[in-house]
């Protein structure tokens, strides 16, 4: 399995690399460290950029080597790391293009979060990656540390659970973790829980360690957070979609909200783009 870790050598990106290294040990995977540099499209800027490119790459590779040495000291083991460089006008599009071309299985990145106007308008690299990636993205909170997966919360609107749960169960099976299917209903909802739903999920997934929980709340993001904390979950998994103009304006996407303040790693699948 190929794990891609975009880095700017900050503390959040080191946290992501540590997490990726622990996953790679379990999955017998390899880690690609990717450094991205933003460039403008003007001829003048591109001309200057070419003169600096070789030197900047050399510096980034040296920083990457030091980062890998720190990670190997903490993780223990001779994990395969490679260093690569990419540039472009868009972080998310450049990383996604690189990942697809190089058959990457998962993108793992850290996030420090954002607040206020920055969260609403600018977002973050993590939220941007969630929007653009054709490959699963695992977002690691800055203060998170790796724990072998025992409980994965799969938050779902249940529209396409039968297509999604197989993917979550496949990951859970590697760690023999339980899958908590979590559905948040409005407080005013009068719908009753389908007693046949859980048996159907277990049968469809081909995996026994699945539980189902329906929670009443009008604040979906908070309800998910509360459930994660109450059940001491190790990872949150969600399938997301492209934002429409209304969502972009008011920031209504639950997945993107949780990318900023989730207490555990957030694994996202953009079901409109996945290849």
TrEMBL record:
Gene3D superfamilies: 3.40.50.12370. Residues 2-141, 166-267 form the UspA domain. Signal peptide: none annotated. InterPro entries: Universal_stress_UspA, UspA. Coiled coil: none annotated. Belongs to the universal stress protein A family. This is Universal stress protein. It comes from Chryseotalea sanaruensis. The lineage of its organism: Bacteria, Pseudomonadati, Bacteroidota, Cytophagia, Cytophagales.
């Amino acid at each position: 399995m190929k794990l891609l870790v975009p880095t700017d050598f900050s503390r959040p990106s080191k946290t992501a690399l540590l997490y990726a290294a622990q996953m790679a040990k379990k999955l017998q995977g390899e880690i690609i460290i990717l450094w991205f540099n933003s460039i403008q499209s003007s001829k003048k800027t591109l001309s200057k950029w070419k003169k600096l490119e070789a030197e900047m790459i050399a510096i980034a590779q040296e920083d990457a080597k030091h980062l890998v040495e720190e990670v190997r000291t903490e993780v223990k083991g001779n994990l395969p790391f490679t260093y690569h460089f990419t540039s472009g006008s868009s972080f998310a599009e450049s990383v996604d293009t690189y990942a697809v071309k190089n058959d990457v299985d998962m993108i793992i990145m850290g996030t420090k979060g954002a607040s206020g106007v920055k969260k609403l308008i600018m977002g973050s690299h993590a939220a941007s990656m969630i929007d653009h990636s054709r490959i699963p993205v695992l977002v690691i909170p800055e203060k998170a540390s790796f724990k072998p997966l025992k409980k994965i919360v799969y938050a779902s609107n249940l529209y396409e659970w039968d297509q999604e749960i197989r993917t979550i169960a496949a990951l859970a099976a590697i760690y023999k973790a339980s899958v908590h299917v979590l559905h948040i209903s409005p407080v005013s909802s009068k719908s009753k829980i389908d007693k046949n739903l859980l048996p159907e999920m277990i049968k469809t997934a081909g995996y026994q360690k699945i539980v189902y929980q329906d929670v009443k709340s009008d604040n979906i993001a908070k309800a998910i957070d509360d459930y994660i904390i109450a059940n001491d979950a190790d990872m949150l998994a969600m399938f997301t979609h492209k934002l429409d103009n209304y969502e972009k304006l008011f920031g209504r996407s639950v997945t993107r909200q949780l990318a900023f303040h989730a207490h555990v790693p957030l694994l996202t699948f953009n079901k409109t783009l996945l290849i």
